[in-house]
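Dear all,

This email documents one entry for the complex benchmark we are building for the journal club exercise. For each entry we list the sequence lines for every component of the assembly. Then comes the predicted three-dimensional structure of the complex as a C-alpha cell string, followed by one or two observations. Please use this as the template for your own entries, and keep the labels exactly as they appear.
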Amino acid sequence: MKNFFKSIGNYFKEFATAIAKGDIGVKLSLVIMGAGYAARKQIINGIIMTLLEAVFVVMCVFYAAPNLAKFGTLGTVQFEQKFDPLTMTSTVNDYDNSFLILLNSIIALFIILAFILVYIGNIKTVYRLQLRKEAGKHINTFAEDVKSLFNQKFNITLLTLPCLGIILMNIIPILVLIAVAFTNYDQQHMPPNALFTWVGFKNFKQLFTNSTTVTFGYAFGKVLVWTLVWAFFATFTTFIGGILMAQFVNSKNTKLPKLWRTLFMVAIAVPQFVTLLLVRNFFGDSGIVNTICSNIGLTDFLKSIGLVGSHLTYIPFLTNPNWTKVMIILINIWVGVPYQMLIATGVLMNIPVDQLESARIDGANKFQIFWKITMPYILFIMGPSLITDFVKNINNFNVIYLLTQDVYVTSDQLLANSNAKEVDLLVTWLFRLTNEYYNYKIASVIGILVFIICAAFTLVTFTQMIKGNREEDFQ
Amino acid sequence: MKKTVDFIIRHAVLLILAVIWLIPIVWLVVTSFSGYRGINTSHFFPETWSLNNYRALFLEPDSVVQYSAWFKNTFIIAIFTCIISTIFVLMVSYTMSCMRFKGRKALMSFGIILNMFPGVLSMIAVYFVMKSIGLTNSHLGMIIVYSAASGLGYLITKGFMDTISVSLREAARLEGASEATIFMRIIIPLSKPIIVYTVINSFLVPWGDFVLAKLMLNSGISTDWTIAIGLYNMLNKSLVNKYFSIFCAGGVIVSIPISILFVLMQKFYVEGVTGGSVKG
Amino acid sequence: MKKKVLATLLATSMVAATLAGCGNSGSEAGGDTSAPAADNSADTAADTQTEAPADASGDSAAADSTASDDAVATLIANTTGPVALTVWASEEDQELTTTLLDNFKAQYSDVEFDITLGSESESTAKDTILTDVEAAADVFAFADDQINELVKAGALQEVVADYTYDVAGENVAGSVEAASIDGKLYAYPMTADNGYFMFYDASVFTEDDVQSLEKMIEVAKAADKKIAMDIANGWYLYSFFQGAGYELSLNEDGSNTCTWNADGATDVAQAIMDACETGVLVQMTDEQQATAIAEGTVAAAVNGTWRAETAEEAWGENYAAAKLPTINVGGKDCQMSSYSGCKLIGVNPHSANVGWAMLLAEYLTNEESQVARFEARGLGPSNIAASESEAVQANPAIAALGEQAAYATPQRVGNNFWAPAETLGQILASGNPDGTDLQTLLDTAVEGITAPVE
C-alpha cells in the first residue's frame, strides 16, 4: 500500500520536474503536444501527437461537453411526440435519453482520463528527449521507434488491441451498471420515454431493509445462502466425481479406457443448453421419467415414505424446492464430471510414479495410496482451479436458468413478492429482474454485491499465488 | 478368481455409469427420429419413426426453422470469434508470461477481478454500446461482442507458457532475436496444445450462447439468428408442442461438428488444459 | 368502406361510450360479478359523453371523408423514395401476413415499399420491445395484457385518427376497450379470441355436466379422467376470485388494488384446494395440457383457442367447448369469471414513417384481413361484421368465448400481480403443504400484489 502511494507521488514529481526544468520545447508541449518532438527533429512523432491532441479537442467539444453537462441531472427534457392527423407525420422534440447520457458520459470520462495520462506521459517523454540531447546521446528516429514496438516495447503492441476490447466491452459496461445502482432506473423510469436520475444509496438501503411489502432483504439473504451452498456442492461434487471417474477409467485393469472416456465425453459434445433443456423435459412433472417411475411403482413408494406429497401423482423433480435443489446438483454432476475427468486424466498422467511405487512396496493398499498420495497431489496441483471453479459456479447462469425457467414456481410468498425463487442464484435473480421486470437499479446493486463476494474470494487466493513469485519456479 | 470378480464389478459399474450418462443423449437421438412432433411422455422410444424432422430442418425452412441459415451464421461467427479470441489470448498471455514491465502484476490482478462481475448484468450496457456504433443485428457485431473482451481469459494459457523453459528465450535473445521473433518463432510453436484448447473453447462460445445473442439480434428476422437462439425459440410455450422433435434433430446436428472437433483434438485438449491449469 | 378522420376529442368520447356500454352489460349479466376495472377510469369521460350519442360519428363521417382522403393523398404525395417498415407478427402468422403485406403494397402501388417481416410471438412481444423501444418494429402484434406496460414505456402511438375504416366503431366494444387506456385508443384490434374458456370431451361430459365444476369432477372421477387448468398462473387464478366477487384492478400509478384477502375470500381458496384435493382438477401448464390431451388423460381443460386445435385432433367429433363452469364457494355456486383477451396491432411512435405504419396497421386489421385470418387460422375476428358471419358463429371455440364474454373482463393489472399470484396458485394447487393459515396466505399474497411501485 505504501509503495502504491509512493509510486503515485513519484509519478507527479517527475511530471513537475519535467515542467520546471524543461526547455522551451518541453514547455511548448504543454500547449502543442508535438512541439517537444519537433524540437528534437522527431517530426513524425510530433505530427502524430499534435493530431491526437486536435482530435481530442474536437471530441471534447462535440461529444464530451454536451453529455457531461447533463451528467449531474441525467437529462431534464422529457420525450414528447406530436402526431399531426392531417399530414400523418409526427414531430419529436429534442429529448434527453438518461441512459445514453450516462453511457456517453462514462465513455467521455474514460477518454479524458486516458488523454490526461497520455498528456503527462508526453511531457515526461519530451523532457527525457531533452536530457538525452543535452547528454549528447542518440535520439531515436521514427523507424527506430517503430522497431522498438516489436522489441523492448512489444508489450505495448500486444496489449493495445485486447485492452481496447476489454475497455469497450467490459470495463465501460461495468462502470455504467455500477452507476445505475445509484439511480432510479426501473420500469417507471425507462428511457427513452421517461428520465431517470441519481438517488444516492437508496437502493442499497432498500436491499437491506425489510418491510412487509418490500422483501428484497429477505430474498437476498435466502438467495445468497443457496448460491453459496450450490457453489460449494457443484464445485466439489464434480471435482471429486471427475477424479474418481478418471481413476476408474484410466486404471490398468480397465479394458478399452479410450472407449469409455469417449462415451462420457459425448455429454460434453452436445451443447449445454440443448442437454439442459432436454433434461428439463425429461424430468418434467408429466415427463418420461415420471411416467416410468409411476409405472414401476417408484412414485407410490416415495409417497409412502413421505418424500413425495400425498396429493401428488408425480415426483416433483423440478417443481418442489427440495427436490429441485437436489436434482440441479445431480444434473450438474452429469454435466460437469466428464469435463473434470478430462482434466484429472491429464493430471494423473503426470503424477510422480516413484512415489506411488515406493508406497506400494511399503505395503499400502489402493485406497491408502489414493487418499495419501494421489489426492494430496491433485489438490496441490488443482487447488487454484478449484477456486476459479467455485467463483464460476457462483455465476453459473446456464444450469439454473435453463433447468428452472418457466418450470419452477416458488411456494415462498415472500420470495415471490421480490420476484425471486428458492432455486435462484444471485445471477439468475438479477437476470430476471432486468429481463422481465426491468428493475435495473436493484439488479445493479445485487450485481455489485456478487462482484464483491467473488472478488474477495479470488483476491485472497490469487494474491497468494502471485505473491510467491511461483511462476518463475516452473520456468 | 478374485481378479475376474474385480474385472466384472469394475466393468459393470462402468457400464451403469455409461448408461446414466448416455440415456439423455440416446433420448435426444431417438426423439429426433420421432414421427410425433411434440414431447413424448409415455414412451422412451418413439411410436413411429421418421426422418421428417431432419427434412424439416434442412429442406422445409419456415419462419421458425431456418436451420441452414442459422448453421451458416453461427459457423461464420464462430470462425472469426475463434481467430480473434485466440490471437488476443496469445498476445495477452505472452506479455504476462514472458515479458517483464512496470504494472504487470497489477494488470494481471485487475484482469482477474474484472472477470468476477456478472456478465448478464452488463449485457444491457454492451447492447447500447454496440447500438451507438450501429452494430446490433449484425454478425460483425456478434463477432466483436464475443471476441473483444477475450483477452481476459488469458490465465490458463499464461500458465501453460510459464512452463516453457526460460532458457530457450534467453538463447534466442543472445542471438539477437527481437521479442516479436521470440513470440512468433519460439513460443507459438511450443504452445500448440494450449492453442488448440483456446481454439476449441472460443469456437464453442457462439454455439452455446443464447442470452446475449437474443439481445443483440433483436430484429425478429429468423434468418439472422444463430443456432442457439433458433433452438431455444423452438421451446417457446406456443411452439414446443409442434417443434420439440425438430429441436432434438437440431441438437443432434449441432453436436456432430463439435464431437468431431473434440475427438480429433482430444489429445491436445487434455495436454493444454492440464498444462495450463496445473501451473495456474 | 367508410373513410373519415376523427378529431381527437371525438375519438375520446367514442371510446368512452363503448367503455360504459360494455361495463353495464358485464355487470348485469355477471350477477355478483363486480364491475370491471375500466369503469372507474372512464367515469369522468362517461359524464361528458352522455349527450354525445354514439351515432355522432356517423353524422360527421360524410363531412370528414374528404379530409381523410386528402390526408392519405398528401402522405402519398409527400413520400419520396422507398418507405422502410418493419412488421412483427407471430410465427404462426407469417404466411398470412406475407400475403396481406403484398395486398397492401398493391393497394398503394404508387409508393415503393421496403417492408421487412419478422417473427415475434404476440405473448412475449413486450419483452423484446421494452428492452429497446427504438429498435422495435414499426408495426407489431401483441396480446392486450401488455398494453398497459407498452403505453407506459411510450411504445404505442395513440390512434388519434383513422383513415380507411372506423377502428373504434367497427370492432366489438370489448376489443376496443382492451385497446384503450384511460379512454384513449392505443392499438388496432386484430382478434377477439385471446381469452380463455373450457373445452371438453363430449364422450365423457354431457352439456349439463359442464355447468358446474363439482358435477364435472364427479363425472371425471368415475371415468378416470382429469380436468386440467393452469392454476399456478395469475391469469387463470383470477377466474376463481373474480367469479366469487373479489376485486383486482389497476391503479393510476401502476400498482394494484386487490381484495382477495377480504372477508370470506378464504372460502375461494378452500374451494380451489378442495377441487384439487380430489385429484381430478390438476394443475398443468399449457404445454403439459397439450401432451396430456393428446394422450387422453385429460378430458376437459381451461385454456384458449390456441389449444383448440390439439383438443380437436385428440377428441375428434366429441370435441366441444363451453363457458367456464360454476364453482361452489362457501355453499354458493359462483360462475367462474375470466379475462377476455384480444390480439392487437400497435404502431411504434419511434417509427420514421408513422403515417404509413398507421395505414398498414389499419390494413392488417380491417374486415377483409380479419376474415382472411379467420379462414386461414381460425382466429376469432374482433370486427363486428366479420364476427357475425355464419362460419365464425359455427366455430365452437369462438362460440364458447362468446358465451364466456358475459363473465369476462379485460385484463388491467400491474406487473406486481404475477409473481405473488403464481405462487398463491401453486400453493393452493398443491394443497397448502405447509399448512399455513389461509387468511395469512391470502394476506401475504395481497401484500405482494398491492406493493407500491415507485
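Observations: Chain B has a mean pLDDT of 87. The radius of gyration of chain B is 23 Å.
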